[in-house]
Amino acid sequence: MASPPSQATAAAAAAAYGCCQRILLASTSLPATGRRTRLGLTLRSSRPLVGRRIRNRRFACQAMTETEPDGNGDEEKEELGDDASSPSVDSATQENGYAESDSNADNTKDETLNSSDTVQNIDADATAANDAQDKVEVVDVAVGSPLPGMKQQLDESVRIPKATIDILKDQVFGFDTFFVTSQEPYEGGILFKGNLRGQPAKSYEKITNRLQNKFGDQYKVFLLINPEDEKPVAVVVPRQTLQPETTAVPEWFAAASFGVVTIFTLLLRNVPVLQDNLLSTFDNLELLKDGVYGALVTAVIIGVHEIGHILAARDTGIKLAVPYFVPSWQIGSFGAITRIINIVRNREDLLKVAAAGPLAGFSLGFVLLLLGFILPPSDGLGLVIDPSVFHESFLVGGLAKLILGDALKEGTKLSVNPLVLWAWAGLLINAINSIPAGELDGGRIAFSMWGRKIATRISSFSIGLLGISALFNDVAFYWVVLIFFLQRGPIAPLSEEITEPENNYISIGVAILLFGLLVCLPYPFPFDASQLTDFDL
């Protein structure tokens, strides 16, 4: 028979039992989330502590008195129960029996009751802290989103799991491509911050290949510039969240409807008699045939513009939606709105597609304009105009002065080939689409050449100037309204937005923007040299 334990041993057992009892009270209100609470106890168990037998109290007490072991040790102790409990506490309890333990517990009852209020206060504070932390964790959108314009179909079932994030950090990214320093959630995906290594295009290709090898087509990676600090970031999102938008009305039907109205406005624009009274158009439809040639020339220039986009898109692998031709009773048409329905690879590809349309339209329109100034009217009479009309365009006015010479005088009527006005209308439509604003061709060109931040500033400035011009010009008014509601952007993200286009493509883009500016700016100089001399005197 074992000898009775010493009084010191019994006191130690009672203290341990009281400690366990207090910890048990606190644990009933603390969620087992694996976080470190204000009590300094890390609750690793996934099962609630409430309702366990007294033997598990010794496990909680030991977790308080010992240094925190690794996760595997804790789990083994919890599974073993009495066998894995503290030896000192077991021996004290076994030797004195449960009766002595109950006596010791009665002695500590007052102490436990006095501390219950403190434990409850600690529980409330810990619960509030956990609730606050939970609220922080559900934030899904990062500040300063680098993916403007991205339409994502968010669903909890497509969130990227933590195991996948670890593979992305350790095996997809790396020292040779993009060294990850931090990460944060972005909508349905993850935004990685870090240091870009090597050339962006080559690094992106390596990252894409590794991502494909690990996950197939499950995820899509973007290499972008963070607008917050102008540093490279990588964004990974599930591909199924990047589904294209659908419309209630089929695109071809809506585009065909707009096309029919545009044909009507092109005909109407070339019949001045009907422009004076639009309501009389339906009573005099036979007069529309007089505008067929002018409408045809302008339509050909617009069509060549769109064909340029289509050919460049086919060469770069970019998919375009059905073009929507926008009608206008002032100039016949505002051109066409063409959406890009897939993700563009890089800025150079976007520049090729955006510049191809204006380049083709400007080229054909300029050639036809020159022919209109050089060739005499087919009927010998032509179209009689006031030369002051050429002051509305720096390009057209300069060519008129250069080609017509002294025949161009202020206040003297002039007969010109109608091809001049028809080609001029086509040039104006191309120039309007080349304004560096929003998702117009000019806005995409500016974005491709100078990046998102500078292009956004240029776009805001251009729209502001159009707004001022709208006070004096009805064409500018309708155009700024159209841009604001349909084309103001932002431009959807490219797969890799860091690499700049080659210099020859940048030169083409700058030339297009300048040519469009020459078409839109007025010609400020008088056509008669004598008037210029009088002005100088």
From TrEMBL:
It is a multi-pass membrane protein. GO terms for molecular function: metallopeptidase activity. The chain crosses the membrane at residues 252-271, 292-312, 353-375, 419-440, 461-485, 505-525. It comes from the Eukaryota. The keyword Plastid applies. GO terms for cellular component: chloroplast membrane. It is found in: Plastid, Chloroplast membrane. Residues 294-453 form the Peptidase M50 domain. InterPro entries: EGY1-like, Peptidase_M50. The keyword Kinase does not apply. PANTHER family: ZINC METALLOPROTEASE EGY1, ZINC METALLOPROTEASE EGY2, CHLOROPLASTIC-RELATED. Probable membrane-associated metalloprotease that may be involved in chloroplast development. This is Peptidase M50 domain-containing protein. It comes from Oryza brachyantha (malo sina). The gene is LOC102711191.
